[in-house]
Structures are given as C-alpha cells and as structure tokens.
Write a structure and sequence with these properties.
Blueprint (H helix, E strand, L loop, with lengths): L1 H23 L35 E4 L9 H17 L6 E4 L7 H13 L4 E4 L5 H10 L4 E5 L9 E6 L1 H15 L4 E6 L6 H17 L4 E6 L6 H13 L4 E5 L4 H8 L3 E6 L10 E7 L2 H13 L7 E3 L6 E3 L11 H13 L10 E2 L5 E2 L8 H6 L8 E3 L1
Parallel strand pairs: 1-2, 1-3, 3-4, 4-5, 5-11, 6-7, 6-8, 7-15, 8-9, 9-10
Antiparallel strand pairs: 10-12, 13-14
Length: 394
C-alpha cells in the first residue's frame, strides 16, 4: 500500500511540473508596439535625490514678505516669476498657494505660513526673503519629502533644502553707468536695506559704485541704511535725507518704489530695483536693476517633475536670463548711456569682464583682490564686508 501511494504522489508531481512548464512557454497575445514619444517629450533621466513628482500632482507654496498686489518692488518681482513659471509649465491656478505679508523677522509667523502650505498639499515651497532661512532649514529636516527652496541666504542640505540667488551685481554695475553719466552734482544716493556686514547688499552697493566710477571718476556714492528689508517709511526717509545731502540721483536696494517717488518729487533722478520702476516714477527712473525670477522657478519645478532635483544651490546671472536692467528711459538718460552700457554688457557676457576683477581699492585705504583674478562666488555672496573707494555711509 505504501508503495502504491508513493507511485501515485510521483505521478501527481510530474503532472504538476508539466502543467507549470506549459504555462510558462505559452505565447502571449500579440500587441501593437507603442509609438515612441518624440525626444522633446521624453522626461529627463531621474537622477535626483527625491522622487519625480507628476506635473498634475505638483503643488507650490510661496511665502512672500509683502503683497504682490502692490504692483512693484521685491514681492511683485518674485510673484511675476511664479506667474511666468506657471505659464511656462502649464500649471493650474489651484496648484499655487500664496502666503503674503509674512514677517520674515517672526519665526512663528514663518512656520505657520509654511505649515499651512504643507497642510494644503504643497510639495515644493519657495521662501522669498532672507529671514525665512532658519525656519525653512528646520522644517526641511522635519518634512524630508517636501522641497524647501530659499531665496537669498546661504544654507542648504544638498537634499530637500537649497538656496537661490543671482549675480544681481552685474545689473547693479550697468545701472551705475546710467547714474554716473546723469549726475550733475557728482553725488549719488543709495538707500540700502542692510549695512556693511551684509554681503548681498554691500556687494550690490560696490558694484553700482564701480559702474559709476567707470564713466565718472569724480562721482561719490552716499549710502543710507534702513536696517530693514521692507520698510516703506524708512525707505522714504532715507531717500529724503540723501536728497538733502545734495544727491541728484537716488539708487536703492530696498523693496518699495518710494525712493524713486521721492526723487521725482524733488526733481531728481533715480535707479530702481527688483522690477521696472519707471511705471512708478516715469519722470525720474533712468532704469532699474531687475530680476526675472521665472528663470529659476521654472528650472526648479522642472527638476522636481523630471526627478532630477539634487538640492544644489542656484546662482544665475545675465547669461541665464535671471538678472538684467529694465529698458532705459530714453527721454531722460544722458547721451551715450546706451552705448556705454551695451559695451559693458557684452564684456560680461563674453567673460572678459566680471565686475570684481583685479585689485580693488576700498574706502578705508586698503585693497582686496589680486591682479589677473576675480573674486570667487563664495566671497561675493558671503564675504564682501567692505565698501568701494568712492562710497561713504551717511
């Protein structure tokens, strides 16, 4: 009996193996091959540190220090960049979450705004002001699946937290040419958000002053510091003080067009910042150093969609289309301004001139830099804590 059962089990096992082998070798139903997508439509190879996010699943939070509805200045320029990115990528309005008027000196307000974005489904959050940096750094660790991208500053983690800025000093230099050719008093005012220890602002002051000096060695640049990134009242008062000193051109690194408005009221001229401020003060604004933030926002969101986000920091310039000057106000700029600016622009774009080249004299009688070399990006973004020889703080 045991022998019979053994034989029966062997036969059953053999039959099951035969059936299994038969199912593996069955010819599958024939299917028409899928048409290959055009090369331009193929997604980039996913080489990033985070998974790709389908375009329809992208949701973007934007933390603004002001209100883009104001129609000019820093927040407006950033929001125009978001709008440009949205159009370029074909995103729906429902995919953009804006948090406006978030005080960047208030970590609690910053955290609340960011957490609200996350609760509403944001998987990418752009913080547009310097003071958001530390809060974004902390929340990036807590929410590793969310991309945190911080405007200006210097921190990042090479994963889900980076910073982005650009070579705005290139545009500052060009705008300085317009100011240097226009001044009659040889006194040019500059409303600065922060003082000498802030490399972002100080580097911009210096680049502007160097542009002025390149066409008018007799001109001086007077700086008035507001100690605030966004303070309409202080920006107005600083411009008034500089005009009282005899400045007949007013430049600025601050958020509102108020310095341009004050220049116009005084019959003086000015150089705006962030967006084209000739719409605010058409009789005064010669040009403006401007940002095209959509160059970065499009780049960043595309990398998230393609799965190629690496967490690298971004530092673009005129070549990348991130910075430039607004069209010259032809009715009021000095003769020869266009030609001088175009010559300087061409040398920047071809790499023969980089603004912070060679040995640079400072206003305390010292020098920085070396002959035949240019300051590196790390120095420009974090270690310009000196003023150019023609700069005086008022």
């Amino acid at each position: 009996m045991k022998k019979f059962i053994s034989i029966l089990l062997t036969l059953l096992l053999t039959l099951s193996l035969f059936t299994a082998c038969s199912s593996k070798t069955e010819e599958p139903a024939k299917q028409e091959p899928a048409a290959e997508a055009p090369a331009a439509e193929k997604p980039a190879e996913a080489t990033g540190v985070l998974p790709a996010i389908a375009k329809e699943d992208i949701k973007i939070g934007v933390i603004h220090i002001g209100n883009p509805a104001d129609g000019s200045g820093y927040t407006f320029a950033h929001d125009q960049g978001i709008v440009g990115m949205q159009k370029a990528l074909g995103l729906d309005d429902s995919q953009i979450i804006r948090k406006n008027n978030v005080n960047d000196t208030d970590p609690t307000a910053t955290e609340t705004a960011i957490l609200e974005c996350i609760e509403e489904g944001a998987n990418i959050i752009f913080g547009t002001s310097w003071g958001y940096m530390d809060t974004m750094e902390a929340l990036a660790e807590e929410y590793p699946e969310v991309i945190f991208s911080h405007g200006t500053g210097y921190k990042g983690n090479n994963a889900n937290f980076n910073n982005y800025f650009g070579r705005i000093y290139q545009a500052r230099y060009l705008s300085g040419i317009a100011a240097g050719l226009k001044t009659k008093s040889n006194l040019i005012g500059y409303v600065a958000a922060m003082g000498q220890d802030n490399s972002e602002v100080t580097g911009g002051v210096n680049a502007f002053a160097m542009g002025v000096n390149s066409v008018n060695p007799d001109a001086k640049v007077y700086v008035k510091v507001t100690n605030s990134w966004f303070s309409p009242e202080e920006e107005t008062n600083a411009a008034k003080a500089l005009l009282a000193e005899g400045c007949d051109v007013i430049a600025q690194h601050c958020d509102t067009p108020n310095p341009q408005l004050e220049a116009e009221k005084a019959g003086a001229f000015g150089v705006g910042y962030n967006s084209d401020m000739s719409k605010d003060a058409p009789k005064a604004t010669l040009t403006s150093a401007v940002w095209n933030w959509s160059a970065y926002y499009t780049w960043a969101v595309e990398h998230a969609i393609n799965g190629t986000w690496t967490g690298e920091n971004y530092y673009g310039g005129m070549k990348e289309g991130l910075v430039d000057i607004a069209p010259l106000n032809e009715s009021i700029v000095a003769e020869g301004t266009k030609e001088a600016i175009e010559a300087a622009r061409a040398s920047m774009l071809d790499g023969s001139f980089n603004v912070f080249d060679g040995v640079i004299e400072t206003n305390d009688g010292k020098t920085v830099g070396e002959e035949g070399k240019t300051l590196d990006d790390a120095t420009i973004t974090g270690n310009i804590k000196w003023y150019y020889k023609t700069v005086t703080v008022k």
